[in-house]
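Q: For a teaching session next week I want to show students how multiple molecules come together into a single three-dimensional assembly. I've collected the sequence lines for a complex. Could you give me the predicted structure tokens for the whole thing so I can convert them for display?
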Amino acid sequence: MSTTSTTRTISVEINGTSYERNVPASLLLVHFLRDDLDLTGTHVGCDTGSCGACTVQLGGEAIKSCCMLAVQADGASITTVEGLASDEGELTPLQQSFHEHHALQCGYCTPGMLMSATALLEKNPRPSEHEVKVALQGNICRCTGYWNIIEAVVAVGEGETR
Amino acid sequence: MLLREVEYARPATIEEAIALLSEHDGARALAGGQTLVNVMKARAASPDVLVDLADLTELRTISFSADQSALEIGAMVTNTMVISSSEVEVARPILAEVAATIADVQIRNRGTVGGNVCVNDPTNHYPPLLAALGATFTIRSTSGERTVSAEEFFVGVYVTAVSEGELLTKISVPTRKPGTGDAMAGITLGAHGTYVASAVATVSSEGVRVALGCVSSVPVRATAMEDRLAGGDLSEAAVRAAAEGLAASLDPPSDVHANAEYRGHLAEVSAIRAVLQAAERAKG
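A: Of course. Below is the structure for the complete assembly, covering every listed component.
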């Protein structure tokens, strides 16, 4: 018989590193990442599940870490934006493409955009413009007007970046 | 956002989950959390105990009933699972078509069919869809299992037949027979946004069923329109004539997106579009 508790010790693998922490059941996953683990690349934008700045990959799928409790992630494997570039700082083709296509201005939405687009490219390595738009529907950018972001993702599929 | 302190449990079996839900006042089942976590932030809901259904893998399956007449969708099946299910594609593809228009990729990855219907927000996609398709809902409690129709399941805004100590386990959707066409039409805020008005139609040899969303606290069947279409003439003129008076028969809510009169008009237009598209699909 399982019992209830206001805290739980969770085990999660984040960017290849295993963490075990005791957390309040009320703690959002995004705050666990940012405040407990200092992984501040994942941003809090709207905090209502609308903007996608908090997007991470959980079990290979893009999810919004502000719409999930840290305890719900117990046992899961998570990738945050810090997990994209290599330890030596070598960018992924997608990050390189964002750089080359000027796909960011203020950069606040960028971690979420990268995580949504990375999940798309893993499932669909050559997405069409329409498929990119659908995949990024849950990510809001208030600077770029989206065009350079879409071009950057499509270009990766077409092999235009190294 | 800081949430109010909450008790949490992650049961390993359905029996444990039901026991937890019945033992604790103010306990809520936590499915994907795409609605519940957000309403908890706003304190619109403030459960004392969350019973996380994440480990109940038997609620994450899509299969056929023993006699193959129904598709059985576990309450914890995500929208993304519906979209990619070969069973859904064969047996009732409208479910995948509609699931693909809910919110965005991230929310579809976490959000579940069971969570969506148990929230019963009148603007949600599944309530009118499942009402039109004649789905049934299986609810478990410590005293056993019961199965209810969509008419019985959807009770009011944010209220369903699932009461305290009970758990929705599966939704059974009749499989599509040859010559059946299903369609959903409506007006949304943005391409895949919230519905302002919606209608689902299913056309088969047994007749036409139409269910409307957003116009009441529960899905509303357009029975007068259905009766007028029973003769089988589904020409555009006949469908438009059958829908006459539908808007006037409704008592929809007013909000910033549409006043009652306009929402009623949108519902009528949506019903016509849904029936015409379903009729086209029924031809094969």
